[in-house]
Structure formats: C-alpha cells, structure tokens
User: What shape does this take?
Amino acid sequence: MSKKKHPTKQANKLAAPTVSKVVAAHDCTGCSACVALCAKAHAISMRPNAEGFLEPVIDFKKCNHCGKCYRYCHVVQRKAYQAHLIPHQQASTDPNAPQHHNEAHPGFTQRYFALSLKPDFKQLYGAATTGVGFVLAHRFVRSGDVVVGCRLNSSTNEAEHVIARTPEEVLPFCGSKYVQSNKHAVMAEVKSLLQAGTPVLFLGTPCEIAGVTTLCSTLKPEAKDRLFTVDLICHGVPSPLSLKLYAQDAAKELGSITGINFRVFLPQSPDWRNMFIGLKGTKQQIVQHCRQNHYYTAFLENWSLRPSCYHCPYTNLNRPSDLTIGDFWNIERLLPQFPYALLGTSQVLVNSKHGVTLFNLLHNHIRHVQEVPAQMVLQSNYLLHDPMALPPERALFFAALKEQQSTVAAVNTVLAHIKTQHQTSS
Assistant: This one.
C-alpha cells in the first residue's frame, strides 16, 4: 500500500512563496542567486524584461514549490532583518560619534583607508583609479585560487561575470563596466568550487555580493569560509539594452563596435577626475568626455538605472562584502597633504577578518596609504549616503528607448523634453 502524503503538509508546500513576489515589487536586483538555488529543478531562468534588465522567470511546470528562491533571496532577508530585528544603522557625520559597526559582520569594527598603489598595474593595464580590485585578483590567481569578476564581451557588448584561473584571464576584469552584468551560471559554479575546497574571490556590486553570500549561507562553515568578497561603491547599474542599442548607434559611424572602455586613462590628462569613454570600431575609434556622450549622460542622470537602484539598501557603510573599494572623491580637499592624490586614489573599507586578509595582499603594491575616519569617507562619496533619486525623466527615457530602438535618440528625446519644460517655465 502506498503511503499517502499528509494533506496539510502538501498544501503548505504548494503555498510556499516564490521569488516572483520580489520581482513584482521591483525589488529584484538581478543577482541570479535564485537560479543557482534552483539548479536541480531548473525551474528558474534569467530573462530580459521590457527595459532590458535580467530578472528571474519561473517555469511553474518544473517548480516544486520548495520556496528556497524566496527564503534565500538577499532582498527578502535584508527586509526582514531591518523590519523585525535591528533598526537600520548609519554612520553619523558627528566627528565625536563612536566607530561604526557593520551589521553584516557583527563583532568586527570597520576601518577606512585612502590608498594609492604603485603605478605599475595602472599604467600597464589602464586601471581607472589605482587598480585595487585588479591587484587582488592577480594575487589570488597567482596563488592557485579562483577569481570571479566582470568582463565586457567584445562580440556581444554585454557585461558578464566569469571565472578566472590565470593572470591572463584576470586582465578583462580591469577597468569599470557601467552596465549590469549577466551572471550566467557563475553563481552555481562558485558554490560548487567552494564545496570542492577551492577558495574564491568574488568581485561585484553590493547586491551581487549579497546574492552570492546569501546563496553560500547554505554551505557548511568550512566551505563558506573559502569565499572572499569585494564590492564596489556603486552608482547604480544601467540597462544592458541601453548599452546594446548605443553600440548599434555608434556602429553607424565607427563600424561594428569591438571594444568599449568606460574610463579611458589618458597620459596627457592624468587627473583621474576627468572621465572619458573610448569606443573602438572596425572603421575607426574615438574617445569622448563623459558629458559629451549619450550613453554616459543617461547613466549619470540616472535615467537608465535598474528600478531597485533607486531604493538600494547598500548606499551606506553597512557593506555586505569583506572589502569595499571605490574612488576617493574630493581627496585634494579632505586630505590636502596626501601625495599622488590626483593620479588616482581609492577608498578602501575593511569590513571583516577576511577583509584584513585581502587588504594585506596589497602590501607590496602600496605607495601611500592613510587611515581615515568614517566621517571623511561619508563626506567624500555621496554614494555612501543615499540611493540615487528616481528622476521624473526615467519613464520617458525607457519609452523612447523601446519605441525608437536607439539610446542616442532616447537621450535626445529626454533632453528636448527638458529644454521645452525649461522654456515653458521661464
């Protein structure tokens, strides 16, 4: 006689919430951890939505309603934490305030540094600021370990996270990629590597780090301890569709686009605050100042960002990673005696014991470092205060992008709209 399933337990299983509830609320960050959690059932896949952002789509014919995608979603977990456990913490701008403690790493007191590396890696590989992330990745693979980082696929003009095991494979990670990346199957691969005993260094945006960390929370302690994470102080992630269509726009003049450099290092303009974008086509190549470029304009004006970026929970000192890196803006004013300041200076936030290990890997590459208070870090970078404000022009930008299938045309549409409004109001 076959054993019947208890009707109440079966009903509870079928009623388990899914990650689709997160997507519906525009909270999904596209980290792809839920796809790795569903690796056995293969019920979840990442697909582009109408704005070009990848989001999880559930095949309910394959879904067994286990609810893992919801329970281990970093967005859901963080909301529950903030709502029911501990009030959201933020570092005070009061110079007499106590040292900040990161809620993601309880018991560890963060430390903050202004850091300039020796120019060897920067000059050889074109690092945007000082190349901290690249140096860490380089050291990791030289030790026989594995690095997961973001590269720009020159054949598709798509940012993607991939695994690197050699210094040559790390090279594409160097430099900024101002677009959201496709994680493909890399999250599941990270989990497998950690289980197999391989240390992994994962570099990405805060929400990507939160995703991989939450995913790996299901592992045994010794496996979790092999994961090292570095997050970037993030402006927000533009739509991959906006980059794809911009490459098509640029190809009309330059030929098929074979390379995009979002922060070109110009020897004749060594001041790292001057940001340029470089485009290489089959016919010719150009370098433009960011404010003269349509794609950059949409990015800097926040028209092309993912919806979750406008209420990002990581625009503060509560970092999900072991180490945080970013540009140390206004250092010439905040630390006027800091040498090499305008040649590129990084902010480095050490958030955990693993972060100390990573920071120590930089030792032989540092030309100057100075510890600074949390208040100075906050004064330097507005991205550590609040999320980007949702601009009223965002809806118009994406409507024009969809209708005209051109990033240049969409930006021009928004600029014309702003000009008309300004003329009307004056």
Observations:
- Residues 12-84 form one domain.
- The longest strand covers residues 146-153.
- The CA atoms of residues 198 and 267 lie 39 Å apart.
